[in-house]
Amino acid sequence: MWGRVRRAVAHDRGECAVRVIIDLTRCQGYGQCAFLAPDVFAMNGEEALLYDTDPDEAQREHVLRAAAACPVQAIHLDRMATQHRGMRTGTAVPPPVGDGFRKTGRIVIVGASLAGARAAGVLRRDGFTGSLTLIGDEPYEPYDRPPLSKQVLVGRVPADHTLLPRLREVDAEWLPGVAAAGLDLAAKTVRLADGREVGFDRLLIATGARARPWFNPEEAALDGVLPLRTIEESSRLRERLAARPRRVLVIGAGFTGSEVASVCRDLDLPVTVVERGPAPLVGALGGVIGKVAADMQRAHGVDLRCGVRVEALEGDADGRLRAARLSDGDTVEADVAVVALGAIRNVEWLRDSGLAAGVWGVACDAGCRAVDINGLVTDDVFVAGDVARFPHPVYNFQFMTLEHWGNAVAQAEIAAHNMLSDQAHRWPHLSLPVFWSNQFGTGIKSVGVPTFADEVVIAHGSTEERRFVAVYGYRGRITAAVTFDRAMWLEFYQGLIERAAPFPPDFRAADRPETLRPVPAEIPERLEATQVTVMVTGHDPAERRATLVHGDR
């Protein structure tokens, strides 16, 4: 049982051991934690916070004082109760779907990472006493991924110190190290890779995503070519960086690639970043803020190459990486290459299951209920986390997938609540997307969807100083805000987005420029999924069905 596994771990580490996690979207850089527990928390710059996720027993009292003193209550500890953002006090127990299901129902969660673990805790917290099974393809307890590209790589904490805190002891059957291989909706069973079958009454799909590999398998197998998403990958990369390579090559300048480049400079390692787009972070924040990110990288000594691609990775006779050949004809010598090309959603096991699952994830409604290939909403299969593709009313009901820590937590809580509620008492997932990134001593935070915008304006501060608030607008209303070391504004703009406030913002502030000049946000053209085709069969309304036609058929 998962709860028994957790108790054994606690005993090995000491009964007073405590795990720490910080909701960095709420953190505003006050630094009280770094003052009260300096061996656990540290400010890297003005608002970029680093912390030990698994401090030793001697730090327990310091950590508890730091959590109590946090002005925005962003520090979460082991067994700390959680509440949905929409709740002011306490926790609400959803109306029962029937005592029989609550007591004897079977819930299976496929995916034992952040979303799966949070959903399991919420289910037990809200009174589900039936059978609960978690299936995970990794052998570890659920762990936190953001520290893997930050604290772990810089050597502040080992990778195995990133296990997630618990809401409470979760009495669940945990099946680690085994992947789901198929789903039979009619029989209500999940087939595992080892041949076992697990039955369910309600299912939560939280299989997340994996790192996109280098396109050439032979080159990907070279010693020194590494992705970064799991504990093992983070540990291997940390070992390589500690060995002081002559140069690190980072392929891709999204958030993961940019954070790796930041760590390399913190360690005084030469690093080259190759990005096929015009600037770092353009895919997430647009070209205007991408230029600021590019200037920041170069100011910290990064050899940034934009508008070019890595055509090939070259190794020596012993299979060790030695260089990369670029599309502009140049060659970069390096013995470590970090492949940071985004993620692939883990949906292969759902092929032929009857669910609307494809390269963009598993489609679901705003209540996290999965959609089948006919466009019908299921009532016993739910989706949460990075693998969920859901419509958001604030953004014209467009379907979106979000690889954000905050979204995984909020969506997992919504899914768990709705699994235990009847139709009249289910909640919609209306939380605005939030994310953070610590790079080069700067805390970058966002609320809303920056890519759903046509204009952007610098509403506070200065891009030259890299301390500012960028506000995004779409057809005259505010849709997102991005802050560089100005996190205190984030909650304010969240409220404006939720109220559909007009763009550009019109109010007085001490650090506001005299004149607001909106400019095009330079958002890249949105990609459309083209890998999946739907074929409709049958003539009678009772027989007409949709079928997915896969490209390999």
Question: What is the topology?
Answer:
Layout (H helix, E strand, L loop, with lengths): L1 H12 L6 E3 L9 H5 L4 E3 L5 E3 L8 H10 L5 E3 L21 H6 L1 E5 L3 H12 L5 E5 L15 H4 L18 E3 L4 E5 L4 E4 L4 E3 L2 E4 L3 E3 L5 H4 L4 E2 L4 H12 L5 E4 L3 H12 L4 E5 L6 H4 L1 H13 L3 E4 L3 E6 L5 E6 L4 E3 L2 E4 L3 E3 L11 E2 L2 E3 L5 E3 L5 E7 L4 E5 L5 E3 L4 H15 L14 E6 L2 E7 L6 E8 L4 E8 L2 E8 L5 H9 L20 E2 L11 E6 L7 E6 L3
Parallel strand pairs: 5-6, 5-11, 6-7, 11-25, 13-20, 14-15, 14-20, 15-16, 23-26
Antiparallel strand pairs: 1-4, 2-3, 8-9, 9-10, 12-21, 17-18, 18-19, 22-23, 24-25, 26-27, 28-29, 29-32, 30-31, 30-33, 31-32, 34-35
Helix pairs in contact: 5-12
Walk me through this protein's architecture.
This protein is α/β, with parallel strands linked by helices and 553 residues long. The protein contains 13 helices and 35 strands. The strands form 10 sheets. A 6-stranded mixed β-sheet has the order 7-6-5-11-25-24. The radius of gyration is 23 Å and the shape is globular. The model is unreliable at 1-16 and 79-93 (pLDDT under 50). It comes from Actinoallomurus vinaceus. InterPro entries: FAD-oxidoreductase/Apoptosis, FAD/NAD-bd_sf, FAD/NAD-binding_dom, FAD/NAD-linked_Rdtase_dimer_sf, Reductase_C.
Tally of helical runs: 13
Helical content stands at 10-25%
How many strands appear in the DSSP assignment?
Answer: 35
Structural class: alpha/beta
Cofactor: FAD
InterPro entries: FAD-oxidoreductase/Apoptosis (IPR050446), FAD/NAD-bd_sf (IPR036188), FAD/NAD-binding_dom (IPR023753), FAD/NAD-linked_Rdtase_dimer_sf (IPR016156), Reductase_C (IPR028202)
Pfam families: Fer4_13 (PF13370), Pyr_redox_2 (PF07992), Reductase_C (PF14759)
Protein name: Ferredoxin reductase
